[in-house]
């Protein structure tokens, strides 16, 4: 059995599925923040949201491609699990990091927009 093909296939399937799922969650829930940041301009918020998702996909799919190659010997099922856990662990950490980065950026933008709105009313 070719354990390399098995490892690559499982790695790509899980990584792509996780990335798509996280992107959908960020897109759906990030819209609310963006509409608020852009003072109700839903068209602008949706446009920025789509651009953020494209960047998210590019970064994650780029990393997945770079991390695909395995230099060691995958000789049995135990090594398949070990390699997958290492590679998928990195993907999950990157997705989590990008999630918190998005939250931080949205929060800062929202705070800045609210401050600007308050100052303009004075």
Question: In words, what does this structure look like?
Answer:
This protein is mainly α. It has one domain. Helix 1 (3-37) runs antiparallel to helix 2. It contains 3 helices and no strands.
Q: What brief labels describe this structure?
A:
122 residues; mainly alpha; 3 helices; elongated
Shape field:
elongated
N-end to C-end Cα span: 72 Å
* Rg (C-alpha, Å): 19 Å
Spell the H/E element sequence. HHH
Biggest beta-sheet profile = none
Tally of strands: 0
In short:
Helix content is 87%, strand content 0%. With 122 residues, it is mostly helical. The radius of gyration is 19 Å and the shape is elongated.
Topology of this protein?
Layout: H1 3-37, H2 42-67, H3 77-121
């Amino acid at each position: 059995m070719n354990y390399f093909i098995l490892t690559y296939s499982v790695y790509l399937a899980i990584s792509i599925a996780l990335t798509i799922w996280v992107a959908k969650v960020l897109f759906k829930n990030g819209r609310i923040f963006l509409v608020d940041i852009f003072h109700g301009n839903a068209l602008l918020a949706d446009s920025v949201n789509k651009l953020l998702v494209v960047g998210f996909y590019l970064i994650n799919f780029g990393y997945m491609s770079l991390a695909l190659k395995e230099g060691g010997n995958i000789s049995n099922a135990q090594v398949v699990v070990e390699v997958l856990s290492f590679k998928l662990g990195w993907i999950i950490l990157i997705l989590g990091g990008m999630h918190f980065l998005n939250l931080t950026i949205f929060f800062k933008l929202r705070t800045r927009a609210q401050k600007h709105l308050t100052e303009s009313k004075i």
